Input
Amino acid sequence: MGKLLFEKESFAIRGAVFEVYKEMGCGFLESVYQECLERELKKCDIPFEPQKQLSLYYKGDVLDQVYIPDLVCYGQIILELKAAKTVSPEHRAQIINYLKASKTRVGFLVNFGVYPKATIERFVL
Output
C-alpha cells in the first residue's frame, strides 16, 4: 500500500484538532475553535498561516477574487473549520472547489460542532 500524501503532517494536524476538542468540547463558535487551534498548532510547532489569501484560477488565468481559508498548515494543507451540527454536501463541495481553484492538493474539513468528538474529513486532489 502506498503512503498517504503528507501523512506525517496530517497526523500532527489531526492530533492538534483532537487536543482542542478534548479541552473545549462542542458548543462554541467557529472563531473560538480557530483561536484555540492556532494556539495548539503553535504549541506543537506546526507551521501555519491564518486567513492566508490564495489565488484562484479559471482556465489557467488568475482571478481577481481570492480564497481565504481558515488556516494553511505546512504551506500546503488547507483547513476549513466548522462548528455545525452536521457537515453538509455544500461544505464538502466548497473545500473541493477551493482545492481545485487554488491548485492545492490536500485539505481538511474540520467540524467541532458534534458530540462526542470533532470530525475531520481529508480531501486529496
